[in-house]
Amino acid sequence: MAVREYVGARYVPLFADEPWTNTIAYEPLTVVLHEGNSYTSRQYVPIGIDISNGEYWAETGNYNAQIEAYRKEVENIAKQLMVTQRSYDNVAAMVADVDIEPGQTVSTAGYYAPGDLGAALYEVVSQGTPQPGKVIALANGNYASLVVVGTITPEMFGAVGNQIADDTEALKACFSVGGEIVLTKRYKFSNVLEISNSKLKGIGGALVVMDTWPNYSEDTARAIKASGTVEIEGIEFSHLNPGAATGPSYFLSFSNSSDCSVHKCVFNSPYANSVSESLIEGYSQNKRLSITDCYINNLTNATSGGLFFREIVAGTCDGFEFAGNTVIHSSTDEALAVYGYKGGYQNVNVSNNVFKFVTTVTNGISFGGNDPTSVGGSTDAFIKHVKFLNNVCEYFNCTSKCIQIGMEATSKEVDDLKFSGNTVELKDGPSTCRVFSVYNATNCSITNNTVNSDSANLPRCIVGPSASICGNNITGSWGNVISYGVASGNYMNLTSSSHAFYNCSSVIGNTIISETGGSVFQHDASDYPMTVINNVVKSPIQQSIARVTSDGHHTLAGNSIDLGGTPGTSYLFSVGLVLDANTVISGNNARGIDGNHIIQGSAGTITVNNNNTIVVA
User: Fold this and answer.
1) For residue 304, is it left (φ>0), alpha (ψ between -120 and 50) or beta?
2) Is the Cα torsion angle 98, 101, 107, 110 positive or negative in sign?
3) Residue 70, C-beta contacts closer than 8 angstroms, at least 6 positions apart
4) What's the average model confidence in pLDDT over 269-284?
5) For 166-170, what is the mean pLDDT?
6) How large is the average pLDDT for residues 465-478?
7) Helix (H/G/I), strand (E/B), else coil: 94
8) pLDDT tens profile 52-107
9) DSSP states of 465-503
10) How far is CA 506 from CA 33, 494, 604, in A?
11) CA distances (Å), 361 to each of 26, 306, 395, in order?
């Protein structure tokens, strides 16, 4: 009978003398070997039981996997501790040794001097093509070929890293090898660098600085071009001189990439430039690009700048994250722009960032397909699945759109955009300014944002045709506060305003505290009626509550209105033409409006329901 649990004097495993076979029986706790792995019997094992039977045998040592891991570990250690036939203080000493022979493995303690982080291993070969750091020509006609072991440094390729010497060629060679690259110094370069399928990590204040900004062309306008899978962390990027570029320029550009990331980096553009300049660009065919926890200081005073992401060919950029960054922006145009351009952008997440606009900006942040009338634009461009969440945006002055959603001339879809939990502060702006500006978008929601304006010029807060505008906290001075769309559950504390709601199709459950202004609910759209239900309005002065200049089945019902001043100078409902007989004015509770001022203008055949409560203060 099989023993399910071993009970007895022996509890030390018994090791079999021979490899496992199914032709003999085994006692409990017997250890056998089979095809390089070890197994221990769980109980008595009769003849004929296969080693794969888990009721009788437990695999207790996967030596094949362990040995393979150990082999790789030993191989790496062997490379690092390789017994070299010759050792040198630096590369110059290695080059000068005429006795060095092919087949030898040699080492240097540094590139220029011991300890300068250029220490490396080389294999001596008889033939080669000289490349900085990678293949070095020796004095005796042979060549030293770099042996890459683990991480590499630009110093292994001849970089000096003092921000004076030009390290362009060394950086090019280092980036061409790729893999894991560690930067610890301050490297200056003067021409385009390309990096692909690499991890670039900075330690101890590493800096990569462009000497002079390049002149514009499709190739040279991009200082650093990244493709494939590239991870960049802990590096500061900057440039020494503004240069004299004649067109758009980009510092770090991604194209044809996947799963790229930029983390805890600093982008610093301290010099004024008279042309379009962007610090980071997404150029084409990028999948899952992530920029997180970076400090981006764009003080170029250029005509545009910051961060520019677009699809330059008729493809789709899928997956873009911009989170936890701080952006200081003094350019006149977008700090962040994401466009479909010729193709599309989708699955965009912009969250938990701080944007500070320190000078007057035209458009601050933009998401759109593309204006097909612009150069290179496509009528098929699109952007969809966008989240703009929990960001802080501080504007010194904005002349057009703080946050642009869609393009006025876009003919392709701008779909599924969510703007929620953001805080927007507008110090100044003309009446043409709009904080949230929505065009040609579907499934767009603007919810739970906090927005304040200190501008005496009465800019507009939210212009959102077909958008859902809910739960926002809006304070300060405005022109039309919410225009178009469906507005519900918003709270407004207005020092001045033209209209709290303008041409909104539905206005439900909002609270409006208004010190001064025009009519609270204004409607002159002819293609849809106005529905105003269950709102609370409080003002220390007399002002018109609802004013319509278009025919339709309007509804003003269940609202609570409390006005100060002298009753009789404001109307509950002010109309500019004959109302439709189906218009409803019902169940409103108004204080500060007398019974003779419920409707101003031509009421037509409408009968005002007698369940309105009018209280004269």
Assistant:
1) beta
2) positive
3) none
4) 58
5) 93
6) 91
7) helix
8) 898 888 876 654 554 455 345 434 544 554 456 789 999 999 999 999 999 999 99
9) TT-EEES-EEEEE-SEEEESSEEES-EEEEEE-SEEEES
10) 77, 20, 23
11) 83, 12, 8
